Amino acid sequence: VDIPGNADNSTEVFMQVRYRRRAVNNIGIFYREAGDPGKPTVVLLHGFPSSSHMFRDLIGKLAGRYHVIAPDYPGFGYSDQPAPTQFKYTFDSIADIMEKFLHDVGVAKYSIYIQDYGAPVGMRLFFNHPERIQAIITQNGNAYTEGLGGFWADTMEPYWKDRNPATEKKVRELLTLESTKYQYSVGVKEPEALNPDSYTFDQMTLDRPGNAAIQLALIYDYQNNVARYPKWHEALRKVKPPVLAVWGKNDPFFIPAGAEAFKRDVPDAEIHFVDTGHFALEEQAGRIADHIVRFLSARIR
Amino acid sequence: VSSSAKTTSVTYNAIDIDGLKIAYREAGTLGKPKVVLLHGFPSSSHQYRDLIRALSDRFHVIAPDYQGFGNSDAPDPGAYAYSFDNLAVMMEKFLSAKGFDRYGLYVQDYGGPVGFRIVGRRPEALEWLVVQNSNAYEVGFTAVWDGLRGALWKNRSPETEKPLEAFLTRDTIKAIYMQGAKKPEFISPRQLELRLLLHAATALRAHESRPILRLSDQCGFVPEVAGLYARASAEVPHFLGPGRHLFHGGRRRSVPYRFAECSDTPPRSGPFRSGGPPRLHLRPYAFVLRHNGGEEIVM
């Protein structure tokens, strides 16, 4: 009897997640990698205030069929958090460093999974090099004004219009444990399915000295994402990439209309809703993985 | 093929035991054979996050956090006596409350001193035992323990307590995870960070140092444990490292009681005696379970 999973079995080596880092523009970028690099690559782009940690369950479910890479942006997770004087915290900069990172790790063509902040990062990758993007999988990764919940007008727009102590106070609340916990728990159907590691770890990264300034800079810059939406729509209309939306329908930040809107520019986009919240993978990783596997099997080689 | 078919979802809950919140992870199906996973220092049920999923389609799995660890309550040590006896009593009550009266037990590190106390009192509860790097023998202590065994446990003073300071630092915690790892890139750094979170709280430092001090209870052979093996109908599986050295001609040896620990020297007598040279090089989560002589499960 041979015992699988004990010897240096190459399949198993690919299945097991590797925790790696590499320097990109002198910034240490941490990433999780799994699966056979010879298979199609799926790049997982995380949201606020998380990191590749939010993909811990999904990675294992995709690793048998795909080469999976999930990097942490500068200032998030285990990547370096250079001071804002050393690194300009904008979505343009983050997209640039992710583009260079993917080039450096030798990934030429890939699908992107975008959630929350992953959308403005991933849509820039798509806009700059549509030929590299094999498919766009959006999970509460917004690119349409229709998708913006009331939160944006209440909290974000005042800060974007006039950055002052009063408007900043409201935005700073987003950096508290209470808010982080809310982001994970709102819309969840089975509270006991929510792993407390999720918000516990994210909050720890937010609480690091110097991190608040980084987050505030990005929250301020987010207005440039909304301003960029029309250009992304134009590119989507022109290129018509395979688009799969699997959207947590109880997300108050990015509402279901944001998923439906992709159909306007990519008519054959597939839109699905799962009965959970913003961080849909916490409760529905299995269902979402099934959608991804089915969709990519049909749409990419 | 559905990629989710193999995974039963894990739930994260807590129940009240003697006024303390005991947090636990649970997965699998009611009615399936039960497994209890008892964690080590300085971790929590978090250390079993992968194993729980791997076992969940065949077992009803439960993994509690001891008081003072993970997401369980951590009462002030001034008001609560942290000892392995008390951890074990709490876990015994927890298992009863959850209806776990007969189960397979997986212990690592602190899980041994906790679990052995429980099944020592209730040998009928133990269906089988997996011992992963949890010690119950003098020969299992390495030189790392000399400072505790030779000094602190004999005479507790500010001077002999000094080594404990290092024990709760980031460097030591990292070493606990990294030492001996064949492929460091497989070790998730989050393990380290979550421990750091716990250790950031000064109060917790005090909590966690207490069980270490009381670990002296485990110093030496525990007669209770030997008796347990003799009495219980437990089948104790070997751990498998690369695994092959535990097989003769490609077949498992069928010895009713088999025990192997992460030690180069086999126990010399008693029911723990191992039939072969236990040169085991363990890898996390690579083992064979055999349930009541029935199906063999290879992870």
Task: Walk me through the structure.
The complex is a heterodimer of chains A (301) and B (299). Chain A is an alpha/beta fold. Chain A is built from 13 helices and eight strands. In chain A, strand 1 (18-24) and strand 2 form a beta hairpin. Chain A is globular, with a radius of gyration of 18 Å. Chain B is of the alpha/beta class. The chains are: A alpha/beta (301), B alpha/beta (299). The A-B interface holds A 1, 3-7, 16-20, 30, 53, 61-62, 64-65, 78, 190, 192-197, 200-201, 204, 285-287, 289-290, 293 and B 2-4, 7, 9-13, 23, 46, 49, 71, 185-190, 193-194, 197, 240-244, 247, 250-252, 283, 286, 288, 298-299.
Furnish the topology, listing elements before pairings:
The complex is a heterodimer of chains A (301) and B (299).
Chain A: H1 10-15, E1 18-24, E2 27-34, E3 41-45, H2 56-62, E4 67-71, H3 91-104, E5 110-114, H4 118-128, E6 133-138, H5 150-161, H6 165-172, H7 177-185, H8 197-206, H9 211-221, H10 223-239, E7 243-248, H11 257-260, H12 262-265, E8 270-274, H13 281-299
Chain B: E1 11-17, E2 20-28, E3 34-38, H1 49-55, E4 60-64, H2 84-97, E5 103-108, H3 111-121, E6 126-132, H4 146-152, H5 158-167, H6 170-178, H7 189-200, H8 202-214, H9 223-231, E7 247-248, E8 251-252, E9 288-290, E10 296-298
Parallel strand pairs in B: 3-4, 3-5, 5-6
Antiparallel strand pairs in B: 1-2, 2-4, 7-8, 9-10
- Helical content band of chain A: 40-55%
Query: Alpha-carbon distance between the termini of chain B?
Result: 21 Å
Which regions of chain A are unreliable across 5 or more consecutive residues at pLDDT < 50? Answer: 1-10
Tell me the number of helical segments of chain A per DSSP (H or I, 4 or more residues long): 13
Which value, in Å, is the CA radius of gyration of chain A? 18 Å
Question: What form of chain A results from the Cα inertia axes?
Answer: globular
End-to-end separation of chain A in angstroms reads: 36 Å
Total number of strands of chain B: 10
Largest sheet of chain B: 6 strands, mixed
Q: Report the oligomer.
A: heterodimer
**Strand order, biggest sheet of chain B?**
1-2-4-3-5-6
Q: Work out the number of β strands of chain A.
A: 8
In round numbers, the mean pLDDT of chain B is 67
How large a portion of the residues of chain A is in β-strands, by DSSP E? 15-25%
Low-confidence stretches of chain B: 1-7, 194-299
The string of secondary-structure elements of chain A, in order, is: HEEEHEHEHEHHHHHHEHHEH
SS summary, helix count of chain B:
9
Instruction: Report Rg of chain B.
Output: 19 Å
Which structural category fits the helices and strands of chain A? alpha/beta
Strands side by side in the biggest sheet of chain A: 1-2-4-3-5-6-7-8
